[in-house]
Amino acid sequence: MNAIADYVLKARPECSHDEIFLTVKGPVKPLDKRHYALTNISDRYFTEAGVEKIPGRGFHSLRRSFATELSEAGVPLETISQLLGHKSIDEDKPYLSYNREQVAFCAIGFDEIPLTTGIYSGGDQDEIK
């Protein structure tokens, strides 16, 4: 994630293109999806770096980690969706996972709700019908 931030902030060429990843050789333009598969590019660099690739893991695993890290940092879902290049927030679901702390933050507490019947009421079990 730091490498991507360094690229965007320091190394990405100035240009009018909205896409994050651009060709290295001029003229600078967005990567052509028909000719450049980011999975193939990342696989090549994994091999050159001696990183053993886990089967079923690739470029989309990096995207998923990126989205999850942003979410854990409190970045709004709309912003994450834009950074992933999605047109709809529904497209983000495969890329996001939440930890227990995030889920607990959304949970509703029942401390303020009076329980008068049932096993949580503190009453006698014989009273339950």
Q: Which helices and strands occur, and which strands form pairs?
A:
Blueprint: H1 2-11, H2 38-49, H3 59-72, H4 77-83, H5 100-106
Summarize this structure briefly:
This protein has about 130 residues and is mainly alpha-helical.
As a percent range, the share of helical residues equals 25-40%
What separation lies between the terminal Cα atoms? 57 Å
On the 0 to 100 scale, the average pLDDT is 76
Percent strand equals under 5%
Query: Would you count the extended β strands for me?
Result: 0
Order of helices and strands: HHHHH
Indicate the radius of gyration in whole angstroms: 23 Å
What does this structure look like?
The radius of gyration is 23 Å and the shape is elongated. The protein is mainly α. Helices cover 39% and strands 0% of the residues. The chain has helices spanning 2-11, 38-49, 59-72, 77-83, 100-106. The chain has five helices and no strands. The mean pLDDT is 76. 2% of the residues are buried. The N and C termini lie far apart (57 Å).
Which descriptors would you attach to this protein?
single chain, mainly alpha, 5 helices
